[in-house]
Design goal:
- The protein is mainly beta.
- It folds into 2 domains: about 30-275, Sandwich (Jelly Rolls); about 290-495, SPRY domain (Jelly Rolls).
- The protein has 1 helix and 32 strands.
- The chain is elongated.
């Protein structure tokens, strides 16, 4: 798989570590129906939905408790995937005024910080040495408080993917019998923001808050006995007064608490489109924000825009070397200088390091919007298929088993392409023109161009809804027979 600046995604079912963060990427998950392969049944839980937070749209969830719970002892658990790095963004914020507050945030240096302020003074500061900058990895964060304990180092415990963090760049232990302001009557709690700033960019799922208990991560997850990857299990305990569980299963009410407590959160600027099927149980690919220049990424690294006169490209976080794969791109604005959409050899293409479009080197190919040439091998024209207009949806189908690439537009494949034709490759460009290696997706744009990608978890509204043959993905147009969404559930078949 492709190596990006944030980490390595390795062979499916093989745990791999991030070069930057040193944490496990959740590259493979198994559902409960697969328990027969274990010596003993493995009690993992398949998580179907997440909430995609777009910081540029000031999206968050808000709740103000009407009564106080236990502010000394509580536990929060959340699975998340970051979309942006090198910026501060908040996971949760309890705001009891400037003098009393709790913030759990990724700092601009990509360290995780837990900070409680009591009477205007730092009461607790844990800031990790670990860096969280792998935008293709799902992390499980558990923070367990009990300020009543005699041992200072036990009053706040942080776990990442099932393992306790013991090394901190800054370590100020929580004062005894002090509050963390996450369960206080009249004190608002914000998920995904610092009240009105530092908005979270990325995905969250299974956000659980247990009021009145300091729990270990085994209440929420377990190591898969075959892969040794940390996976979710369903929390089966009680929640306490202000406890909640957000599973984001209802797209019309993303703030619904399903714990039974009815501690619902108010939704701010989130819509049904922000419900995603990209989860720790089935990780979908996105665009790679660590490889871009002036392009701005939003919507969980699925929407890209470039207002600069300097063109720049974006590529997917991973690709594949075998199988048949399908994706869509909605060109919301092609821009005055056009947009190029296509395929990229992630191991060899100069798009990794140069400001060029797919088709301008020997290891990529792209459909240019102005006039519709399909370029490959340093702008050799393969076919000319007409211009792409604002609002058009480009379909991308790559058959890596038979070695052909296809472009479609608004439901019709171009150049008389027939992705289901097998080895004949009718209308398709031979993948041999891109060289051997991992093939992914790429785009180039400039001058007010914008586009939204759909790798199976769409960032734009669709009118129909079509899944692949395995039941994964949600596409505007039906994937060709035998083609699949690029996610870890599907990739496991080709591992």
């Amino acid at each position: 798989m492709n190596q990006d600046n944030g980490g390595i995604i390795g062979k499916i079912n093989t745990p791999t570590t991030s070069l930057a963060s040193g944490v496990w990427s959740l590259d493979s998950q198994f559902d409960s129906q697969s328990s027969s392969i274990w010596p003993l049944a493995f009690p993992n839980t398949t998580i179907a939905n997440s909430c995609r937070f777009n910081g540029a749209s000031s999206e968050d969830l808000e709740r103000t408790p009407s009564s106080s719970g236990n502010n000394n002892k509580n536990t929060l658990s959340v699975w998340l995937k970051r979309s942006k790095v090198d910026e501060e963004d908040f996971i949760i914020y309890g705001f009891g005024g400037s003098a009393n507050r709790c913030k759990i945030t990724f700092k601009a240096d990509n360290k995780l910080q837990i900070n409680t302020i009591v009477s205007s003074s730092n009461n607790l500061v844990y800031e990790t040495n670990r860096l969280f900058r792998d935008t293709n990895a799902w992390y499980h964060i558990v923070i367990a408080f009990d300020s009543t304990l005699a041992t200072a180092g036990d009053r706040c415990r942080l776990y990442v993917n099932g393992v306790e963090e013991t090394s901190f760049a800054t370590e100020t232990d929580m004062g005894q019998n002090t509050s963390n302001f996450l369960s206080t009557s009249g004190t608002p709690v914000y998920i995904g923001s610092q009240e009105s700033g530092n908005y979270f960019d990325g995905y969250m799922t299974e956000f659980v808050f247990v009021d009145g208990q300091q729990l270990e991560p085994t209440a929420f997850g377990a190591f898969n006995p075959v892969t040794n990857i940390w996976e979710p299990i369903g929390y089966g305990g009680t929640y306490g007064t202000n406890g909640f569980r957000l599973d984001f299963a209802d797209s019309s009410a993303l703030g619904n608490d399903v714990s039974g407590n009815d501690n619902d959160f108010t939704v701010q600027n989130l819509t049904s489109v922000d419900q995603s099927t990209d989860t720790c149980s089935n990780n979908f690919i996105t665009l790679n924000p660590l490889q871009s220049g002036p392009i701005t990424f939003t919507d969980g690294n699925l929407t890209q825009g470039n207002t600069s006169s300097t063109g720049n490209n974006a590529i997917s976080t991973i690709g594949a070397t075998s199988g048949k794969w399908y994706a869509e791109v909605k060109c919301t604005a092609v821009g005055s200088n056009g947009t190029t959409v296509g395929f990229v050899n992630l191991n060899k293409s100069s798009l990794q390091i140069q400001n060029i479009s797919p088709g301008q080197d020997n290891f990529s190919a792209g459909l240019y919007s102005n006039g519709g040439p399909i370029f490959y091998s340093s702008e050799t024209t393969f076919a000319t298929v007409g211009s792409t207009s604002d609002g058009d949806i480009i379909q991308l189908a790559m058959d890596l088993d038979n070695g052909y690439l296809y472009w479609g537009r608004n439901g019709t494949y171009l150049n008389s392409g027939v992705p289901t034709s097998g080895s004949t490759g009718t209308g398709g460009l031979a993948t041999s023109n891109l060289g051997s290696g991992e093939i992914g997706f790429g785009m180039w744009q400039r001058n007010s161009a914008s586009a939204s990608w759909n790798y199976g978890s769409p960032s734009f509204s669709i009118s129909s809804g079509n899944a692949d043959a395995n039941g994964f993905g949600n596409f505007e147009y039906a994937p060709p027979s035998g083609y699949f969404a690029l996610n870890t559930k599907n990739l496991s078949e080709f591992g």
